[in-house]
UniProtKB/TrEMBL annotation:
InterPro entries: Gfo/Idh/MocA-like_OxRdtase_N, Gfo/Idh/MocA_oxidrdct_glycsds, GFO_IDH_MocA-like_dom, NAD(P)-bd_dom_sf. Residues 137-197 form the GFO/IDH/MocA-like oxidoreductase domain. One of its GO terms (molecular function) is oxidoreductase activity. This is Gfo/Idh/MocA family oxidoreductase. Residues 5-124 form the Gfo/Idh/MocA-like oxidoreductase N-terminal domain. The lineage of its organism: Bacteria, Bacillati, Bacillota, Clostridia, Lachnospirales. It comes from Candidatus Eisenbergiella merdipullorum. It holds the Pfam family GFO_IDH_MocA_C3. The keyword Oxidoreductase applies. Keywords: Oxidoreductase. The keyword Transcription regulation does not apply.
Length: 198
């Protein structure tokens, strides 16, 4: 089997180093080409992290010339920009979430990827959590009866600086973390017929 040549665009996303460490654990599957980061502030803050040690930093275009697939771990507001660029260059992508500021942005990425027969994987880690997989198996088997309502909560600690950063986005923490819950609820109940805000 040929190894997947993979690189990473951006190190500004909170999960960026973790994704790079994950692919580096499987050298029999992945040939890690390197990473691209154009923001000097992120290079100063995260460029020395273990996940990037020994890897070549290169311009985005050079990375795209060498890769089959790309991890997109840029600043949140640049995720769909880089996703669109990678897809236009015929690259499979893993893109962290959230998937852009509008449905149209992400919809364009998905539409082009489908036309080019490219894989788009969004960073929804709960889909691969063994406990969640087991729960979904019980739901599919009918072991829990008919699921007609879900009450969900997701909480975590964030320092004040992070909470201030969240004010950049419509929806705040719901925009960043709520998508995990919505993803699972849609998987369990199906797509909604109608959505009503409070």
């Amino acid at each position: 089997m040929n190894k997947i040549k993979i690189g990473q665009i951006g190190i500004g996303h909170n999960h960026g180093e973790g994704k790079m460490l994950a692919v580096r654990k499987f050298p029999e599957l992945f040939e890690v080409i390197g990473y691209a980061e154009e923001n000097n502030a992120w290079l100063e803050k995260r460029g020395g992290l273990a996940g990037y040690q020994g890897l070549e930093r290169m311009p985005v275009e050079k990375l795209l010339d060498k890769c089959d697939a790309v991890l997109i771990e840029s600043d949140v507001w640049d995720l769909t920009k880089y996703a669109g660029l990678c897809i236009s260059r015929g690259k499979h992508i893993h893109m962290d979430k959230p998937a852009g500021g509008t449905l149209e942005e992400y919809g364009n990425v998905l539409k082009t990827a489908k036309e080019k027969n490219l894989v788009v994987q969004l960073g929804y880690m709960y889909r691969y959590n063994p406990a969640v997989i087991k729960c979904l198996e019980h739901i599919r088997n009918g072991d829990l009866g008919e699921i007609y309502s879900i009450n969900a909560e997701m909480s975590t600690f964030h320092p004040v600086e992070y909470k201030k950063w969240l004010t950049n986005f419509k929806g705040g923490i719901m925009y960043i973390l709520g998508s995990h819950l919505v993803d699972l609820i849609v998987y369990i109940l199906g797509e909604p017929d109608k959505v009503t805000s409070f």
